[in-house]
Amino acid sequence: MDNFQKKFLEEASDLINQLEQALLTLEQDTQNPELVDSIFRIMHSLKGGGGMFGFDNISSYTHKLENMYDLVRQKKLKVTREMLDITFESADHITSMLNDDGTKSNEIKRNEEILNRRIDAILDGDNFSDTSFGPAESLEQTVSGVKSYYVKVKPYEHIQRNGTNPFFLIDELVGLGKHKVNIFYSNIPDFENFVLDDSYLWWEIILSTDKEEDAIKDVFIFVEDDCEIVIQRISESDIFEMPKVAPLLDCRQDFPFDLDKIKAICQEEAVKEKEKSEAENSENKAKVNSGDEHIKKFTKESSISGIRVASEKIDDLMNLVSELITTQAGLNLYAERNKDAELTRITENLENISRQLRDTAFSITLIPIDYLVVRFRRLVRDLSREVGKEIEFEARGAETELDKTLIEGISEPLMHILRNSIDHGIESAAERMAAGKTPGGKIILQAYYSGSQVVIAVTDDGAGMDPKKIKRKAIEKGLIAADSQLSDKEAIDLIFMPGFSTSEKVTNISGRGVGMDVVKRKVSDIRGTVQVSSSLGEGTTITIKLPLTLSIIDGMLVRIADVDYIIPLSVIDTIFAVEHEKIVSAFQNVINIEGSQYPFYYLRDEFGLTDSAPAKEEIIMVKYEDRKIGIVVDNITGEYQAVLKPLGKLYRNQDIFSGASILGDGTVALVLDTHKVINQFTKYNEL
Q: How far is it, in rounded angstroms, from Cα 173 to Cα 666?
């Protein structure tokens, strides 16, 4: 049962994520019945799963929420801000119950009592003093008429292995109204082939109920993949009130209902009813002639479109793929040394398969940024209310995918950025109107691919950053000297210094000086970069650039002296062979190649190497921001699939190396982060 509970916890987390997304959308469109229905189904799923897997506290609490949204579905209540606030808080409360280890039980219980009182107030109508919100219609106006359905439930044999008891499903179904149940035993095998955990029975049910068809579907919401289910509306009235139908419902075991005769009688009754009222003639005729259109058969295909896999298994898969690639490199080296044509052919085929396996395994680890967007929408919603600002949040390119490790690593930095945009960036309504802006501000999160990188930009239309104010604050805090000469861009970059803050007071949101330096450090930890651009009075954009993955890269294997290095292919633009004399004689490290001048860094000098260089060296042009800058190496070995490994303690402070890779011969090659190489050596050369 522990495995089932673990599975429920995972599914419940996904459901809560879906709930918050639906609530945020419903807040913008409170009249959307599909959103209300979606929220109801989520509540129903949490209630059913909680009861099934031993989380009775969650089941009982969500039952009350489910009732509230059921009244909205029936148009007996309207969606109000109080209702949405309660549901958001309930999502947090359910999350607390899911994560409770017993240490916060009393706090959770007190919170639930408060929430229950607020829900009761809505259900009792106490919060509808404002005429703009209230019961949409009276009870008499919204109660649906009784309709009759034919339902077939044929569980697959494996259903009980998932912890589902089909008898409970039938019991819940017949609780919806008047019913006649026909049970089929014909699939039960002989004793020798009987499997205790398998399910062999199936059912036909005739049901008359005042519930909507969705209520019938909700019974099977957990078992759509484990049953053949047919739901067919056969009459617009109570079939049990038709005398001619009664004998047809008394059928024998293993003999199906004579559905054709039942439907024929229902049609006759419908015709009689139609003749009683000319006003209802066209409507009833449509119902008679379109009986087949009400058939809702949602039998699931035997094939499964997706599966849930534990993240630990994915990590193990990526580790094995990494080891395979390392072994493949060793095999390639062995084949080159032995000059065996057959071995070379096999090695090339294996390398091709390994590359495809790598790409497939890598794609499995990718998660859309949309996974984080719901959390960010909720953050903006709650914090904007807390600071009394009206802020719209928009996400673009949320389908952009990132390695799951990067998704985990980027969440906190983006939270910091959004907090700062809300607290520092967006002005108050009065300030915005005085500046000729709309009262409400806007924050846009945009994600997109750029080569082998993912770019995430957070833009606000707020006050922007004042370089002079930033510099003044940095001087006051002793972060820079009073006579420092800084450009506007350099001044703005001071916000990334530890302890820097322009906030005049400490709040729950910001002002403690632990914001943007954390952003830069955590982004750097996952081999990313962060940049800021701001225009005073117009707004600020903070851009984060990240690699697609942290584990495997395509690189160029190069050599300097007797040491191997790897440069990611994603940053390489072009490569030129250049005479050594031309490099050492270049003025201020600027070289003319094919009529264009390029700045470059001579890594032999930067690394302090004194041995003799080859007569001809290679200059690799790498992309840096919007320019191309040369990196000079002794020679190029060739392209190489690099499995990145973290560096040890000795290299902990060497930012220019993003990792290391084991080569086919067992030696280690350091992976150069060219962006940080250029940044670091530029600073050293300016000193």
A: 65
Q: How far is CA 627 from the centre of its chain?
A: 34
| Predicted confidence (pLDDT) per residue in 552-570, tens digit | 778 899 999 889 999 988 8
* HSE (side-chain half, CA atoms, 13 Å) at 226: 18
Q: How far is CA 354 from CA 117, 305, 350, 662, in A?
A: 60, 25, 6, 17
What is d(CA 574, CA 567) in angstroms, rounded to the nearest whole number? 13
Torsion of CA 38, 39, 43, 49, to 10 degrees: 40
392's tokens: 């719209």
DSSP run (H or E) holding 406: helix 404-420
With b for 16 or more beta-carbon neighbours within 10 A and e for fewer, the 284-319 pattern comes to: beebbeebeeeeeeeeeeeeeeeeeeeeeeeeebbe
Buried/exposed code over 192-204 (b: 16+ C-beta within 10 A; e: otherwise): eeeeeebbebbbb
Label the pairing between strands 627-633 and 596-602.
parallel
Nearest to 496 by CA among 565, 419, 573, 413: 413
Q: Are strands 391-396 and 441-450 parallel, antiparallel or unpaired?
A: parallel
- Look up residue 574 and give its two tokens: 């072009």
Q: Which of 98, 117, 104 is nearest to 17 (CA)?
A: 98
Could you tell me which of 417, 411, 379, 377 has the C-alpha nearest to residue 394? 377
- Residues 613 and 623: beta-carbon distance below 8 Å: no
**CB count in 10 Å sphere of residue 598:** 19
In whole angstroms, give the CA distance from residue 532 to residue 540. 7
pLDDT in tens, 123-179: 876 444 333 333 433 333 333 478 899 999 999 888 887 778 888 888 888 888 888
Kindly report the length of the chain.
687
Q: Which class for 554: exposed (0-12), middle (13-18), buried (19 or more C-beta within 10 A)?
A: middle
3-state secondary structure of 222: coil
- Residue with the two structure tokens 């009350």: 64
Residue 645 DSSP one-character state: B
Most confident of 315-329, 496-510, 512-526: 315-329
Q: Give which of 109, 179, 186, 176 is closest to 144, Cα–Cα.
A: 176
Strand order in the sheet with 616-624: 572-579, 616-624, 627-633, 596-602, 590-593
Nearest of 459, 456, 475, 478 to residue 467 by alpha carbon = 475
| Max intra-chain CA distance, the chain | 107
Show contacts of 32-37: CB within 8 Å, 24+ apart.
Answer: 33/73, 36/69, 36/72, 36/73, 36/79, 37/73, 37/214
Question: To 10 degrees, what angle do helices 341-364 and 311-338 make?
Answer: 160
The one-letter code for the residue type at 93 is H
Question: Residue 291: pLDDT band by 50, 70, 90 thresholds?
Answer: very low
